[in-house]
Amino acid sequence: MRKTSSRLISREGWLFMIGAILLLIVAVRTHHIALGLFAIALLIVLIFFFRDPPREIPSVPLAVLSPVDGRVIGVEFTDKGVLERESAHVTIRVDNFGAYTARSPVEGKVLNLQDNFSAGSRLLGVNGLWVRTDEKDDVVVMMKAPRGLRPKSFIGYGERLGQGQPFGFIRLTRRVEVYFPLNSRVEVSVGDYVRAGNDILATLVHD
User: Fold this and answer.
1) pTM of the full structure
2) Are 138 and 148 in contact (CB under 8 A)?
C-alpha cells in the first residue's frame, strides 16, 4: 500500500477555521467565558467536519476504489448506465462525518460527462466525475446533494488523476453512485462500510 499526502484539514475549511480562531481570540481578550466555550466547541466541530486524513491506497492497479466514506446501500447491474451503455454500479450513502475530500476511484484522464449526452439529458447539471483509464475503461462517479450544497471539484477536464487522488469536496453530498464496466468483479456487498481511497469496490477485468 502507498500513503497519500494530506493537509489533515481540507482547504475549503480554512476560512471557517480562521473565523472560529478569531472568535476565540476575541473571547479571550474580552474575558467572555460563554463566547470562548462556544468558539472552542465550534472549532472542534469544524476540525471534525473538514478533516482530511491520509489514506493507505491499495497496490492494486485495476481496483476501483471508493471515492467517499460511507455505507454501501446498493449493488446493481443495468443495461443502460450513466454513459448510456451496459454497466455495473455501487451506491454509497455518504457518511458526512467521514473524510471531507472525495478521491478518484481509478487512475486516468478526466473527461466531460456532458459530451456524452444530448442537450435534453436528465443527467446534465448533475455533479459527476468521468475517468477513462489507460486500458480504456470508463469509471464514473455521480454525486447527489441538495441544491446550493453540491460537491465542489478542483480538477479540470483533460487533467490526469491518480488512483486515490483527491478531486473535490463532498460538502453535504447524500449519495454517491460509482459506475464501472459490466464485466468487472464486484468486491463489496450491501451493508459494507467503505472509506475513500482505501477500500476496493470492484476490480476491472482484463484477459
Assistant:
1) 0.82
2) no
DSSP H/E element including 194: strand 193-194
Q: Which three cell numbers stand for residue 49?
A: 467536519
- Residues 148 and 171: beta-carbon distance below 8 Å: no
To the nearest 10°, the Cα dihedral for 164, 57, 176, 6?
-60
What pLDDT, in 10s, does the model give residues 132-152? Answer: 999 999 999 988 877 767 778
pLDDT at 196: 93
Which residue range forms the structural domain that includes residue 44? 2-52
Task: Mark whether 83 and 169 lie in a shared domain.
Answer: yes
Residues 47 and 100 in one domain: no
Residue 126 falls in which region: left (phi positive, over 0), alpha (psi -120 to 50) or beta: beta
Which CATH number fits the domain that encloses residue 147? 2.70.70.10
Provide the H-helix boundaries in 10-150.
14-29, 33-49
Question: Which cell numbers hold the place of 20?
Answer: 472560529
* DSSP conformational letter for 199: S
